[in-house]
Amino acid sequence: MHGSVEMAKTEETQHNPLRAQESTASSDDERAPLALLEEDDWQSSQKTFGVALLAVLNQIAFGYDVGAVSQCLQPIERTFRLTQLQTGFVTSALNYFAAAGALMVSGALLDRYGRRKALIAAAWLLIAGGIAVAAANSFEALVIGRLLQGLGVGCSWSASGIYVTEIAPSKLRGSLVALVDVAINLGIIVGYCAAFLVDATSLGRSLSIAPWRVSMGLSALPSLVFMLFVISLPESPRWLVKRSRPIAAKRSLQRLARPEASDADIDAALASLGETVDET
After folding, report:
1. Do residues 146 and 130 make contact, with C-beta atoms less than 8 angstroms apart?
2. Which of the chain's termini has less CB crowding within 10 Å, N or C?
3. 106 vs 151: CA distance, rounded Å
4. Sign of torsion, CA 149 152 156 158?
5. Number of CB atoms found within 10 A of residue 107's CB
């Protein structure tokens, strides 16, 4: 009886090709989720999260500046006796220069020199800009400091988002890319609170330093922390594959891998990465 039922099913499938295709598609669909789950098993979520967190530190510097400048604007205006037009320019200059940094500096650095070097360049620009603003003795010097900060912000904004996207496994990509926005908003809160506390405690006055200079100078701190740990930041494996550097790409993948991941796992991930790069 059982054999008769199976023969009937076989005959139905042979006479109905559409049903056979549906059956095959159903089997593929059932196997597909398993393949997706196993695709990134070689990669360590903890290592990847730590690297992504390091990559977005420059965005904290951006947010800090936005929060701090709102508290420091009036003392800056009094120090340099700025006109309303000059005050507005100092406030908004960061956004103008950030757009230039994203379009020019970041594009050339990302494509030619890689994501890691673009992040390092952004950090140096933000450090130099924070120091220049804090030490400014004229309106022109203040604008130069804001120029450096803006270029650094634009460069880091583009580089950090692309870098995190390229190193993140598919199952964590959305969460890790969101760290960029989280870092900016966290920086805004920290910058506002820090500037308020520095002004309330008159920090720096004992050394004849205006509190606003201390507050604006602290904007370089996240980028300084980034530079301290930048040695642990691997280059984007995807960029290395695009530049035909498979050995360096494999080393980067190994730095993101689980301790128990084998060379065969890394080689398979590298081959898969090469296929996706060829498709684009």
Report:
1. no
2. N
3. 9
4. positive
5. 15
Q: Which of 56, 144, 157 is nearest to 93 (CA)?
A: 144
Question: In this predicted model, what pLDDT tens digit does every residue of 74-101 receive, in sequence order?
Answer: 999 999 999 999 998 988 888 889 988 8
Q: What is the DSSP letter of 105?
A: I
Angle at 175 between CA 170 and CA 178, to 5 degrees: 125
Cβ atoms of 45 and 167 closer than 8 Å: no
Q: Which helix (H) or strand (E) holds 100?
A: helix 84-100
Between CA 135 and CA 129 the distance in angstroms is 10
Residues contacting 33, CB < 8 A, separation 6+: none
98 in Cβ contact with 148 (< 8 Å): no
Give the span between the Cα atoms of 116 and 229, in whole angstroms. 12
Segment 187-196, tens digit of pLDDT: 999 999 999 9
Which two structure tokens, joined as six digits, stand for 25?
């598609």
Amino acid letter at 5?
Answer: V
DSSP 40-91: TTTB-HHHHHHHHHHHTHHHHHHHHHHHHHHHHHHHHHHHHT--HHHHHHHH
Task: Give the span between the Cα atoms of 94 and 234, in whole angstroms.
Answer: 29
* Cα gap 245→96, rounded to integer Å: 36
Of 36, 207, 69, 59, the residue nearest 145 (C-alpha): 69
Q: 3-state class of 64 per DSSP? A: helix
How many helices and strands, by DSSP H and E, does the chain display? 15, 0
CA-to-CA distance for 141 and 153, rounded, in angstroms?
18
